[in-house]
From TrEMBL, chain B:
Residues 35-173 form the Thioredoxin domain. It comes from Bacterioplanes sanyensis. It is a single-pass membrane protein. This is DsbE family thiol:disulfide interchange protein. SUPFAM superfamilies: Thioredoxin-like. It is found in: Cell inner membrane.
Length: 153, 173
C-alpha cells in the first residue's frame, strides 16, 4: 500500500509545480506558470514597504497582492494584464520596471546622459594634457639660455 | 584654459544634493498618488458591518462623502477616531470600510468610541481594499455625489489635514 502511494506521489510530481515565495506555497499545474509567478513577484514592488518586491516582503498588503497575482495567473491572464491590473490600483509605483514615457524619460536615459557627459569631460581633459607644447618665444629662449649659463658656472 | 571644466562635476553633485534634499525632506513621502482619482468608485459586493445587509457601490449615498478605511488593529485609526466623530457631528457624511478586521471587534470598537459612520462596509479579506489600492490604514477617499473618487489622503485625519482637504470637499458640493 505504502509503496503504491509513493509511486502515485512520484507520478504526480512532474504534473505540478510549486512556487515558494517568502515561505508561502503556491501550487501551479505547470512549471512555466510557476516561473512566471516567481518573476512577477520579483518585478512588482510592495506599495507599503517601498524598497522590497512582492517576493521579499511579508507586509500584509504584499501577501494580498501576491495572492491576487496568483489568482490572476490561474485565470490565464498574461503578465501584461496582471501588471496593468495592479498599476490601475496602485499606480506605476508597483513596477520596478518603469514604462518608457515622456515623464520617465530622464529615468531611462539619465544614466546614459551622465555617462556621455563623463566621457566628454574626460576627453576634453586628456586633450588639454596631450596638446603639443607651444614653441618658446624669443624672450623665453633668451631666458632659458641665461638659466643654462647660470647653471653651468 | 579649460580648468573651469573641472568644476562641472562639483556643480552636478551639488545640484543632485539639492534635489535629494528637497525630495527627502518632503512631507508624506510615503504617500503614493492614487491612479483612482477621477475614476468611479470600484464596483463591489459586500456586507454592511452592523446590519449585515448586502452592499454595493450603488448603496453609497448620493452626496459628497468621505470613505474612511479603518481597522481595530490600526493604532493610527484610534488616533483619528475622535476627529471623525467631530466631522460627523458637523454633518459630514462618512462611510467606513472596516479593512481586514474582525466584525465582532469592529462592532465593539464602534460601541466604545462612538460611531461617526453612516454605515460600514465589512471587508474582512481586504478585497475591496485591493480594488481601491489601499496599502495601509487609515486611508480616506473623497467621493463626490456621482460616486467619483476626487481625492485621497493617506494617514490619519486631523485638524491640520482637514484644513487642506476641506476646500476640496466643499468644492464637491
Amino acid at each position: 500500500m505504502m509503496q503504491r502511494l509513493c509511486w502515485l506521489a512520484l507520478l504526480w510530481l512532474p504534473l505540478t509545480a510549486l512556487a515558494v515565495v517568502d515561505g508561502h506555497k503556491y501550487p501551479f499545474d505547470d512549471a512555466e506558470k510557476a516561473e512566471r509567478f516567481r518573476q512577477l513577484a520579483e518585478d512588482l514592488r510592495c506599495p507599503k514597504c517601498q524598497n522590497q518586491n512582492l517576493a521579499d516582503s511579508n507586509a500584509p498588503v504584499a501577501v494580498d497582492l501576491r495572492d491576487k497575482v496568483y489568482e490572476l495567473l490561474q485565470e490565464d491572464q498574461s503578465d501584461e494584464q496582471i501588471v496593468d491590473y495592479l498599476v490601475a490600483r496602485y499606480g506605476d509605483f508597483v513596477r520596478y520596471n518603469p514604462p518608457f514615457r515622456l515623464d520617465t524619460l530622464l529615468l531611462w536615459i539619465g544614466p546614459l546622459l551622465a555617462m556621455l557627459f563623463g566621457i566628454g569631460l574626460l576627453v576634453l581633459i586628456r586633450r588639454g594634457q596631450n596638446a603639443a607644447p607651444k614653441p618658446l618665444t624669443d624672450a623665453e629662449k633668451a631666458q632659458l639660455e641665461q638659466l643654462k649659463k647660470a647653471n653651468r658656472s | 584654459m579649460t580648468r573651469w571644466l573641472l568644476f562641472i562635476p562639483l556643480a552636478v553633485t551639488l545640484a543632485m544634493g539639492v534635489l535629494f534634499w528637497i525630495g527627502l525632506g518632503k512631507e508624506d513621502k510615503d504617500a503614493l498618488p492614487s491612479p483612482l482619482v477621477g475614476q468611479p468608485f470600484p464596483s463591489f459586493e459586500a456586507k454592511a458591518l452592523l446590519s449585515g445587509e448586502a452592499i454595493s457601490a450603488a448603496s453609497l449615498p448620493a452626496k459628497p462623502m468621505l470613505v474612511n478605511v479603518w481597522a481595530t488593529w490600526c493604532p493610527t485609526c484610534k488616533a483619528e477616531h475622535a476627529f471623525l466623530n467631530q466631522l460627523a457631528k458637523q454633518g459630514i457624511t462618512i462611510v467606513g470600510i472596516n479593512y481586514k478586521d474582525d466584525d465582532a471587534k469592529a462592532r465593539e470598537w464602534l460601541k466604545a468610541y462612538g460611531d461617526p459612520y453612516d454605515f460600514n462596509i465589512s471587508d474582512p479579506d481586504g478585497k475591496l481594499g485591493l480594488e481601491l489600492g489601499v496599502y495601509g490604514a487609515p486611508e480616506t477617499f473623497l467621493v463626490d455625489s456621482q460616486g467619483t473618487i476626487r481625492g485621497k489622503h493617506i494617514g490619519d485625519l486631523n485638524t491640520r489635514v482637514w484644513q487642506k482637504l476641506q476646500p476640496q470637499f466643499e468644492a464637491m458640493k
